[in-house]
Every structure is written in structure tokens, then in C-alpha cells.
Amino acid sequence: LMVGVFGLPRASAVTLRPRQPLVTPDVAFERPRTPGVVPNFTRHFNARWIVGSPPWTGIEHVDSVVELAMRDQGNATESHVIAMADFLPPIALSYLKTPVAAASLTWMLELLGEDVSSLPLEGWRLDATMVAAHSGYINQSSTLWGPGGVPVALGRQTMVMFG
Prior knowledge:
The chain is mainly β and about 160 residues long. The chain is about 5% helix and about 35% strand. It has one helix spanning about 80-85, and strands spanning about 30, 45-50, 65-70, 100-110, 125-135, 135-145, 150-160. A 7-stranded antiparallel sheet has the order 1-2-3-5-6-7-4, with helices on one face. The longest helix has 8 residues, at about 80-85.
């Protein structure tokens, strides 16, 4: 089931834009490329965890900040934005040391109306926080930042993991 809400900008007395927080990098982790374990779609990305860690590292950290780039030609499109916003696996998987199955139950993504057609496919950042995890269900929220710290999308996701 997919629900789309499309609307034109309207005048408002209230404006609040997210601001990209400064982060102090942990030990940086490059995205592992383990065939048969890491989903195939990840081959389209260059990713580096600067806070938190990739799945199955046994590192317990509720936040993940990932520098992202897509291995594609040209500038960004809305399709690229959706793909980048969907890149991050459940943060809870980084708590584990061995692979287990996981899946999305719900995913809400709000595109913030930025025209991304002038943005390159490098220099993106995805910030996410695991808000809750209990009985195999994980809830996390995220913000996708374009190059230069431009807020591009907000996400909220509920996932399940089997282990």
C-alpha cells in the first residue's frame, strides 16, 4: 500500500527548516561488501559510517550518521533521493555480530520540496536514530541531507528483525 500526498506551496507565517547538526566522527566504517549477506542494491552506493556502525559489528549505538554517494552519472533526481533515504538498514542490526533477517513494516518519507536537480550525487549524509527497539520491532527516524547540509527528506520507519 502506498499513499501519496501532493500539494503546492502556500503562504505561512511559520517556517522552520531542519539544520544539519555537526557531528564528531567515531572510527569511520566503510560499507562492507559481502555478497550473499549485504543486499544487492547497496552496490550502487559508496557509504561510510561516521557515527555508529554497519550491521553485524556488535557495536551498540542508537545513532548512525552515514556519508553517502551514488555510483551513477549526472545530478540527483527524486528517485535518487528515495534510494538514498532507504539506504540505511535497521540500526539494531549493528548491535549483533552475526547476520539475521530483517524487513520493513512501515516507511514514511517526506520530501521537503527541494529542487534536487542541481545537486551532485556525492556529498550526501543520512542521519538516523533508533527511537525504540523491543520484542524484535525497531522504530527509527532519519533525515537525508543534500550536499552543503540542505535538508531534503525526513523519514520514519518501523522494522522487524528475526534475532
